Amino acid sequence: xxxxxxxxxxxxxxTEDNSGEAQPPNDFESVEAQLPPGFEIPDDSEVTxxxxxxxxxxxxxxxxxxxxxxxxxxPPVTTTxPPVTTxPPVTTTxPPVTTTxPPVTTTxPPVTTTxPPVTTTxPPVTTTxPPVTTTxPPVTTTxPPVTTTxPPVTTTxPPLTATIAPRTPQPGGPGSQVIASVLVxxxxxxxxxxxxxxLTAPAGTRLANGYLGTWRDGEGDLSHPGTLSPDxxxxxxxxxxxxxxxxxxxxxxxxxxxxxxxxxxxxxVTFALxxxxxxxxxGSVTVI
Length: 288
Prior knowledge:
With about 290 residues, this protein is an all-beta fold.
């Protein structure tokens, strides 16, 4: 153990630091020093202690050694214990156990092994299956007749209709050539296209050349040849492009020769439109 030692010294005079210079009195009043265990100092020796004052200055102060009185030894510890009492012995004698058991009967009662007879006769199995009806109803393979004839389509256009009106007759004497003309108007609901026109001259006259002339606004005069009969009384003009829409009109005309002996007065020339004709009219000339 480390023994504490206290040293006191008055600081009434100037002291010196490690450099040997004089220092002002310090503020130390007592110093306590502790020595390591086992370290011994003679009673007449001095101890030098380093101290630091509040200003951080270090001082070495020689102090007289003051031994600390030795403590008296501790009294011995009594280790005597009271005697231990041994417990009384435990009686381990138990009452005798009766091990005699009643006798066991090992003879089992007889077992009856007789079983009632088993009937193995089974009822007869019918292996004949009921007859299967394989007859099926007859299948009709003839399909119903299919009508492939479509209903008739009416392709007949509405009938063509027209009016043939006379124009102002031209006068002429025997041996002269005059023009007979008519005004043709489409009065139907269908366009009148290419048609056949038949011309017929009255008695006392004959057709000059069998030609049919036509005229309309924007088209002018056109001439269409015809097949003239040997006596010049008729002429058939085929493929004449009439081309009249409903409500439109066109002028037909032809040249006529007045023969000698013709009776004076009007002489009508017939114009038949269509084959067969669906419109007929006359254009007169006047024999003078």
